Amino acid sequence: xxxxxxxxxxxxxxxxxxxxxxxxxxxxxxxxxxxxxxxxxxxxxxxxxxxxxxxxxxxxxxxxxxxxxxxxxxxxxxxxxxxxxxxxxxxxxxxxxxxxxxxxxxxxxxxxxxxxxxxxxxxxxxxxxxxxxxxxxxxxxxxxxxxxxxxxxxxxxxxxxxxxxxxxxxxxxxxxxxxxxxxxxxxxxxxxxxxxxxxxxxxxxxxxxxxxxxxxxxxxxxxxxxxxxxxxxxxxxxxxxxxxxxxxxxxxxxxxxxxxxxxxxxxxxxxxxxxxxxxxxxxxxxxxxxxxxxxxxxxxxxxxxxxxxxxxxxxxxxxxxxxxxxxxxxxxxxxxxxxxxxxxxxxxxxxxxxxxxxxxxxxxxxxxxxxxxxxxxxxxxxxxxxxxxxxxxxxxxxxxxxxxxxxxxxx
Length: 411
Fold this sequence. Notes:
Layout: H1 3-13, E1 34-35, E2 40-51, E3 53-58, E4 64-68, E5 72-77, E6 80-81, H2 103-106, E7 110-115, H3 119-122, E8 124-131, E9 139-148, E10 151-160, E11 175-180, E12 186-190, E13 215-219, E14 241-244, E15 249-254, E16 261-265, E17 272-277, E18 314-316, E19 322-327, E20 340-344, E21 349-356, E22 359-368, E23 372-378, E24 384-389, E25 399-407
Antiparallel strand pairs: 1-2, 2-25, 3-4, 4-5, 5-6, 7-8, 8-9, 9-10, 11-12, 12-13, 13-14, 15-16, 16-17, 17-18, 19-20, 20-21, 21-22, 23-24, 24-25
Protein backbone atom coordinates (compact mmCIF):
# COMPACT_ATOMS: atom_id res chain seq x y z
CA UNK A 1 0.00 0.00 0.00
CA UNK A 2 1.22 3.51 -0.79
CA UNK A 3 2.57 4.97 2.45
CA UNK A 4 0.78 8.29 2.22
CA UNK A 5 -2.52 6.61 1.46
CA UNK A 6 -2.03 4.53 4.57
CA UNK A 7 -1.01 7.64 6.51
CA UNK A 8 -4.09 9.45 5.31
CA UNK A 9 -6.27 6.63 6.59
CA UNK A 10 -4.63 6.92 9.98
CA UNK A 11 -5.17 10.67 10.00
CA UNK A 12 -8.87 10.34 9.31
CA UNK A 13 -9.31 7.71 11.98
CA UNK A 14 -7.06 9.23 14.66
CA UNK A 15 -8.62 10.90 17.70
CA UNK A 16 -8.06 14.63 17.96
CA UNK A 17 -7.49 14.88 21.68
CA UNK A 18 -7.21 18.41 23.02
CA UNK A 19 -5.74 19.34 26.36
CA UNK A 20 -8.57 21.77 26.89
CA UNK A 21 -12.29 21.28 27.09
CA UNK A 22 -12.74 23.37 23.94
CA UNK A 23 -11.27 20.74 21.63
CA UNK A 24 -13.66 19.32 19.10
CA UNK A 25 -14.71 15.94 17.87
CA UNK A 26 -12.41 13.54 16.00
CA UNK A 27 -11.98 13.90 12.25
CA UNK A 28 -15.11 12.97 10.35
CA UNK A 29 -14.26 9.93 8.24
CA UNK A 30 -16.77 11.11 5.62
CA UNK A 31 -15.31 14.53 4.88
CA UNK A 32 -11.73 14.17 6.22
CA UNK A 33 -11.98 17.35 8.27
CA UNK A 34 -10.12 17.64 11.56
CA UNK A 35 -12.11 19.88 13.90
CA UNK A 36 -10.27 21.92 16.51
CA UNK A 37 -11.06 24.85 18.79
CA UNK A 38 -10.20 27.68 16.37
CA UNK A 39 -9.72 26.21 12.89
CA UNK A 40 -10.86 23.12 11.03
CA UNK A 41 -8.46 21.63 8.51
CA UNK A 42 -7.64 18.70 6.28
CA UNK A 43 -4.33 16.86 6.13
CA UNK A 44 -2.94 16.58 2.61
CA UNK A 45 -0.03 14.51 1.32
CA UNK A 46 2.80 16.60 -0.16
CA UNK A 47 5.44 14.01 -1.08
CA UNK A 48 6.32 10.42 -0.30
CA UNK A 49 9.52 8.39 -0.49
CA UNK A 50 11.69 10.27 2.03
CA UNK A 51 13.93 8.34 4.41
CA UNK A 52 14.09 9.60 7.99
CA UNK A 53 13.44 13.30 7.22
CA UNK A 54 14.72 15.59 9.96
CA UNK A 55 14.25 19.16 8.77
CA UNK A 56 12.55 21.28 6.09
CA UNK A 57 13.36 24.69 4.63
CA UNK A 58 11.46 26.64 1.97
CA UNK A 59 13.52 28.45 -0.66
CA UNK A 60 12.16 31.79 -1.96
CA UNK A 61 11.38 30.24 -5.37
CA UNK A 62 9.09 27.69 -3.69
CA UNK A 63 11.34 24.62 -3.52
CA UNK A 64 11.08 22.64 -0.29
CA UNK A 65 14.48 21.37 0.92
CA UNK A 66 14.39 18.31 3.17
CA UNK A 67 17.27 16.72 5.06
CA UNK A 68 17.38 12.94 5.36
CA UNK A 69 19.41 11.62 8.26
CA UNK A 70 21.26 9.00 6.17
CA UNK A 71 23.13 12.00 4.76
CA UNK A 72 21.06 13.31 1.85
CA UNK A 73 19.52 16.68 1.04
CA UNK A 74 16.40 16.34 -1.11
CA UNK A 75 14.34 18.82 -3.13
CA UNK A 76 10.55 18.84 -3.52
CA UNK A 77 9.64 20.99 -6.53
CA UNK A 78 6.06 21.70 -7.55
CA UNK A 79 4.88 18.85 -5.35
CA UNK A 80 7.34 16.31 -6.79
CA UNK A 81 10.31 14.80 -4.93
CA UNK A 82 13.26 15.04 -7.30
CA UNK A 83 14.88 11.62 -7.79
CA UNK A 84 18.47 12.77 -7.19
CA UNK A 85 19.75 14.18 -3.93
CA UNK A 86 21.73 17.43 -3.82
CA UNK A 87 25.42 17.04 -4.60
CA UNK A 88 28.28 18.65 -2.70
CA UNK A 89 27.44 17.91 0.95
CA UNK A 90 30.33 17.51 3.41
CA UNK A 91 31.25 14.02 4.69
CA UNK A 92 28.50 12.86 7.07
CA UNK A 93 28.60 10.09 9.66
CA UNK A 94 25.29 8.26 9.21
CA UNK A 95 24.89 5.29 11.51
CA UNK A 96 22.08 3.01 12.55
CA UNK A 97 21.76 0.16 10.09
CA UNK A 98 19.81 -2.91 11.03
CA UNK A 99 17.00 -3.77 13.43
CA UNK A 100 19.39 -4.04 16.39
CA UNK A 101 20.73 -0.50 16.10
CA UNK A 102 21.00 1.42 19.33
CA UNK A 103 19.54 4.85 19.93
CA UNK A 104 22.87 6.65 19.52
CA UNK A 105 23.24 5.28 16.01
CA UNK A 106 19.64 6.09 15.18
CA UNK A 107 20.19 9.77 15.91
CA UNK A 108 23.39 10.38 13.92
CA UNK A 109 23.60 11.72 10.35
CA UNK A 110 22.40 14.89 8.62
CA UNK A 111 20.19 17.04 10.81
CA UNK A 112 18.99 20.61 10.34
CA UNK A 113 19.01 22.94 7.32
CA UNK A 114 18.27 26.67 7.40
CA UNK A 115 18.64 29.52 4.95
CA UNK A 116 20.74 32.61 5.56
CA UNK A 117 18.48 35.62 6.25
CA UNK A 118 19.69 37.05 2.91
CA UNK A 119 19.50 33.75 1.03
CA UNK A 120 17.67 35.31 -1.91
CA UNK A 121 20.85 37.21 -2.81
CA UNK A 122 23.70 35.14 -1.33
CA UNK A 123 22.22 31.60 -1.66
CA UNK A 124 23.90 30.47 1.58
CA UNK A 125 22.48 27.30 3.13
CA UNK A 126 23.52 26.09 6.61
CA UNK A 127 23.57 22.43 7.64
CA UNK A 128 24.12 20.68 10.96
CA UNK A 129 25.41 17.12 10.76
CA UNK A 130 27.51 14.48 12.48
CA UNK A 131 30.96 14.57 10.91
CA UNK A 132 33.37 11.61 10.99
CA UNK A 133 35.84 11.76 13.84
CA UNK A 134 38.56 9.76 15.54
CA UNK A 135 36.05 7.61 17.41
CA UNK A 136 33.15 5.60 16.00
CA UNK A 137 30.55 8.33 16.36
CA UNK A 138 32.31 11.57 15.41
CA UNK A 139 31.04 14.98 16.50
CA UNK A 140 28.36 17.43 15.44
CA UNK A 141 29.28 20.29 13.13
CA UNK A 142 27.91 23.21 11.10
CA UNK A 143 28.77 23.80 7.45
CA UNK A 144 27.53 26.31 4.92
CA UNK A 145 27.58 26.39 1.15
CA UNK A 146 25.92 28.03 -1.82
CA UNK A 147 22.81 26.25 -3.02
CA UNK A 148 22.46 26.84 -6.75
CA UNK A 149 21.35 24.63 -9.64
CA UNK A 150 20.41 21.84 -7.24
CA UNK A 151 23.90 21.44 -5.87
CA UNK A 152 25.95 22.80 -2.95
CA UNK A 153 29.24 24.54 -3.72
CA UNK A 154 31.90 26.47 -1.80
CA UNK A 155 31.17 24.32 1.26
CA UNK A 156 33.05 25.27 4.41
CA UNK A 157 32.89 23.99 7.97
CA UNK A 158 32.08 26.80 10.39
CA UNK A 159 32.10 24.90 13.70
CA UNK A 160 32.52 21.47 15.20
CA UNK A 161 31.70 20.65 18.78
CA UNK A 162 33.97 19.64 21.61
CA UNK A 163 31.13 17.44 22.86
CA UNK A 164 32.56 14.04 23.63
CA UNK A 165 30.50 10.86 23.86
CA UNK A 166 30.13 8.60 26.83
CA UNK A 167 32.34 5.88 25.40
CA UNK A 168 29.53 3.56 24.29
CA UNK A 169 27.47 3.08 21.14
CA UNK A 170 24.63 4.87 22.95
CA UNK A 171 26.39 8.24 22.78
CA UNK A 172 23.46 9.95 21.15
CA UNK A 173 21.56 13.12 22.19
CA UNK A 174 23.16 15.18 19.42
CA UNK A 175 20.84 18.18 19.38
CA UNK A 176 21.62 19.98 16.15
CA UNK A 177 18.74 22.45 15.67
CA UNK A 178 19.72 25.73 14.00
CA UNK A 179 18.14 29.20 14.07
CA UNK A 180 18.97 32.76 13.12
CA UNK A 181 17.73 35.50 15.43
CA UNK A 182 16.55 38.99 14.43
CA UNK A 183 20.12 40.33 14.60
CA UNK A 184 21.47 37.69 12.24
CA UNK A 185 23.27 35.59 14.85
CA UNK A 186 23.35 31.82 14.34
CA UNK A 187 22.36 29.46 17.19
CA UNK A 188 22.70 25.68 17.46
CA UNK A 189 21.57 23.24 20.15
CA UNK A 190 24.05 20.64 21.40
CA UNK A 191 22.92 17.55 23.29
CA UNK A 192 24.63 16.04 26.31
CA UNK A 193 25.74 12.91 24.36
CA UNK A 194 23.77 10.70 26.75
CA UNK A 195 26.13 10.76 29.69
CA UNK A 196 24.58 8.92 32.66
CA UNK A 197 22.58 11.09 35.03
CA UNK A 198 23.96 9.43 38.15
CA UNK A 199 26.54 10.07 40.85
CA UNK A 200 27.74 13.64 41.28
CA UNK A 201 25.18 15.39 39.06
CA UNK A 202 26.97 18.74 39.25
CA UNK A 203 30.04 17.07 37.66
CA UNK A 204 27.99 15.95 34.63
CA UNK A 205 29.40 17.19 31.26
CA UNK A 206 26.27 19.30 30.70
CA UNK A 207 27.30 21.30 33.80
CA UNK A 208 30.89 21.71 32.61
CA UNK A 209 31.62 24.84 30.58
CA UNK A 210 34.96 23.49 29.37
CA UNK A 211 33.10 21.38 26.78
CA UNK A 212 30.08 21.88 24.52
CA UNK A 213 27.98 19.01 25.90
CA UNK A 214 24.43 20.11 26.70
CA UNK A 215 24.81 23.71 25.51
CA UNK A 216 23.43 26.26 23.08
CA UNK A 217 26.05 28.05 21.03
CA UNK A 218 25.90 31.49 19.34
CA UNK A 219 27.99 32.43 16.31
CA UNK A 220 28.16 35.06 13.63
CA UNK A 221 26.98 33.93 10.22
CA UNK A 222 30.60 33.25 9.20
CA UNK A 223 31.22 31.01 12.23
CA UNK A 224 33.22 33.51 14.26
CA UNK A 225 32.41 34.18 17.91
CA UNK A 226 30.58 37.41 18.81
CA UNK A 227 32.49 39.50 21.33
CA UNK A 228 29.40 39.91 23.53
CA UNK A 229 28.87 36.18 24.10
CA UNK A 230 28.58 35.70 27.87
CA UNK A 231 31.76 33.64 28.38
CA UNK A 232 34.16 35.36 25.98
CA UNK A 233 37.47 35.87 27.74
CA UNK A 234 36.79 33.45 30.60
CA UNK A 235 39.67 31.00 30.90
CA UNK A 236 38.79 27.34 30.36
CA UNK A 237 35.34 28.08 28.90
CA UNK A 238 34.34 27.68 25.27
CA UNK A 239 33.44 31.19 24.03
CA UNK A 240 30.73 29.91 21.67
CA UNK A 241 28.52 28.88 24.61
CA UNK A 242 25.36 30.96 25.08
CA UNK A 243 23.56 28.69 27.60
CA UNK A 244 24.26 25.34 29.24
CA UNK A 245 22.65 22.65 31.37
CA UNK A 246 20.54 21.15 28.54
CA UNK A 247 19.81 17.49 27.83
CA UNK A 248 18.75 17.32 24.19
CA UNK A 249 17.00 20.31 22.61
CA UNK A 250 15.45 19.25 19.31
CA UNK A 251 13.27 22.28 18.60
CA UNK A 252 14.23 25.95 18.45
CA UNK A 253 12.38 29.04 17.20
CA UNK A 254 12.51 32.82 17.48
CA UNK A 255 9.33 34.66 18.45
CA UNK A 256 8.77 37.02 15.49
CA UNK A 257 7.04 39.59 17.70
CA UNK A 258 9.50 39.84 20.57
CA UNK A 259 12.71 38.34 19.20
CA UNK A 260 12.83 35.91 22.14
CA UNK A 261 14.61 32.60 21.49
CA UNK A 262 12.76 29.44 22.60
CA UNK A 263 13.74 25.79 22.75
CA UNK A 264 12.01 22.55 23.55
CA UNK A 265 14.08 19.87 25.22
CA UNK A 266 13.77 16.13 25.70
CA UNK A 267 13.53 15.05 29.31
CA UNK A 268 14.34 11.47 30.28
CA UNK A 269 11.24 9.41 31.10
CA UNK A 270 8.85 12.30 31.64
CA UNK A 271 9.64 15.98 31.90
CA UNK A 272 9.99 17.38 28.38
CA UNK A 273 10.58 21.13 28.70
CA UNK A 274 9.90 24.41 26.93
CA UNK A 275 12.56 26.98 27.78
CA UNK A 276 13.07 30.68 27.14
CA UNK A 277 16.74 30.93 26.18
CA UNK A 278 18.66 33.83 27.72
CA UNK A 279 22.39 34.52 27.63
CA UNK A 280 24.59 32.93 30.26
CA UNK A 281 21.83 30.94 31.95
CA UNK A 282 22.12 27.40 33.33
CA UNK A 283 19.03 25.28 32.56
CA UNK A 284 19.76 22.67 35.17
CA UNK A 285 20.21 19.29 33.50
CA UNK A 286 20.74 16.87 35.20
CA UNK A 287 20.78 18.58 38.61
CA UNK A 288 17.11 19.61 38.46
CA UNK A 289 14.22 18.40 36.33
CA UNK A 290 10.93 16.53 36.23
CA UNK A 291 11.81 13.15 34.68
CA UNK A 292 12.80 9.79 36.12
CA UNK A 293 15.13 6.99 35.07
CA UNK A 294 14.08 4.76 32.20
CA UNK A 295 12.84 1.28 33.13
CA UNK A 296 13.31 1.68 36.91
CA UNK A 297 11.25 4.86 37.30
CA UNK A 298 13.63 5.97 40.07
CA UNK A 299 14.16 9.64 40.76
CA UNK A 300 17.09 11.39 39.03
CA UNK A 301 17.01 14.87 40.53
CA UNK A 302 17.00 15.97 44.15
CA UNK A 303 14.34 18.52 43.17
CA UNK A 304 12.80 20.58 40.40
CA UNK A 305 14.13 24.01 41.41
CA UNK A 306 17.51 25.35 42.50
CA UNK A 307 19.01 28.81 42.81
CA UNK A 308 21.07 29.71 39.76
CA UNK A 309 19.22 27.29 37.46
CA UNK A 310 16.40 28.34 35.14
CA UNK A 311 13.04 26.61 35.53
CA UNK A 312 11.17 25.61 32.37
CA UNK A 313 8.29 27.75 31.12
CA UNK A 314 6.21 24.63 30.38
CA UNK A 315 6.60 20.87 30.83
CA UNK A 316 5.09 17.72 29.37
CA UNK A 317 4.62 14.84 31.80
CA UNK A 318 4.44 12.25 30.39
CA UNK A 319 6.86 13.19 27.64
CA UNK A 320 5.68 13.68 24.07
CA UNK A 321 9.20 13.50 22.58
CA UNK A 322 9.32 17.17 21.56
CA UNK A 323 10.81 17.97 18.15
CA UNK A 324 10.54 20.72 15.52
CA UNK A 325 8.74 23.92 16.52
CA UNK A 326 7.68 27.28 15.08
CA UNK A 327 5.70 30.45 15.68
CA UNK A 328 2.88 30.79 13.18
CA UNK A 329 2.66 34.06 11.22
CA UNK A 330 0.54 33.13 8.18
CA UNK A 331 -2.88 34.20 6.95
CA UNK A 332 -4.30 30.76 6.19
CA UNK A 333 -5.12 30.20 9.89
CA UNK A 334 -5.62 33.75 11.24
CA UNK A 335 -6.72 32.68 14.74
CA UNK A 336 -3.41 30.84 15.18
CA UNK A 337 -1.21 33.85 14.43
CA UNK A 338 1.48 34.20 17.09
CA UNK A 339 0.90 30.70 18.47
CA UNK A 340 3.67 28.15 18.94
CA UNK A 341 3.45 24.71 17.32
CA UNK A 342 5.46 21.73 18.60
CA UNK A 343 5.79 18.29 17.05
CA UNK A 344 5.91 15.10 19.11
CA UNK A 345 7.88 11.93 18.38
CA UNK A 346 6.89 9.46 21.07
CA UNK A 347 3.59 11.30 21.46
CA UNK A 348 3.00 11.22 17.66
CA UNK A 349 1.14 14.50 17.85
CA UNK A 350 1.05 18.16 16.93
CA UNK A 351 0.53 20.62 19.79
CA UNK A 352 -0.51 24.28 19.69
CA UNK A 353 0.52 26.59 22.53
CA UNK A 354 -0.85 30.08 23.19
CA UNK A 355 1.60 32.41 24.96
CA UNK A 356 0.71 35.57 26.82
CA UNK A 357 3.95 37.41 27.23
CA UNK A 358 6.34 34.67 28.27
CA UNK A 359 3.77 32.35 29.85
CA UNK A 360 1.90 29.45 28.26
CA UNK A 361 -1.79 30.05 28.88
CA UNK A 362 -3.36 27.41 26.65
CA UNK A 363 -2.45 24.06 25.06
CA UNK A 364 -4.35 22.12 22.42
CA UNK A 365 -3.47 18.85 20.71
CA UNK A 366 -4.41 19.28 17.06
CA UNK A 367 -3.40 15.86 15.76
CA UNK A 368 -2.64 12.59 17.50
CA UNK A 369 -1.67 9.23 16.05
CA UNK A 370 -0.38 10.76 12.82
CA UNK A 371 3.16 9.39 13.27
CA UNK A 372 6.47 10.63 14.65
CA UNK A 373 6.49 14.33 13.76
CA UNK A 374 10.13 15.32 13.33
CA UNK A 375 9.73 18.86 12.01
CA UNK A 376 7.07 21.58 11.66
CA UNK A 377 7.41 24.42 9.16
CA UNK A 378 5.22 27.15 7.71
CA UNK A 379 5.00 27.22 3.94
CA UNK A 380 4.79 30.31 1.72
CA UNK A 381 1.09 29.43 1.30
CA UNK A 382 0.55 29.82 5.07
CA UNK A 383 -0.11 26.08 5.49
CA UNK A 384 1.66 24.02 8.16
CA UNK A 385 4.01 21.32 6.85
CA UNK A 386 4.96 18.26 8.91
CA UNK A 387 7.89 15.88 8.32
CA UNK A 388 6.96 12.36 9.45
CA UNK A 389 9.86 10.22 10.67
CA UNK A 390 9.99 6.43 10.52
CA UNK A 391 8.78 4.09 13.24
CA UNK A 392 11.94 1.94 13.42
CA UNK A 393 15.54 2.61 14.43
CA UNK A 394 16.87 1.61 11.01
CA UNK A 395 18.56 4.63 9.45
CA UNK A 396 17.64 3.31 5.99
CA UNK A 397 13.89 3.45 6.33
CA UNK A 398 11.14 2.68 5.78
CA UNK A 399 10.22 5.63 3.57
CA UNK A 400 7.83 8.23 4.96
CA UNK A 401 6.59 11.59 3.73
CA UNK A 402 5.67 15.23 4.14
CA UNK A 403 2.08 16.29 4.82
CA UNK A 404 0.45 19.67 5.30
CA UNK A 405 -2.51 21.19 7.16
CA UNK A 406 -4.90 22.97 4.79
CA UNK A 407 -7.85 25.11 6.00
CA UNK A 408 -11.26 23.49 5.66
CA UNK A 409 -13.08 26.82 6.01
CA UNK A 410 -12.94 29.61 8.54
CA UNK A 411 -15.40 30.14 11.33
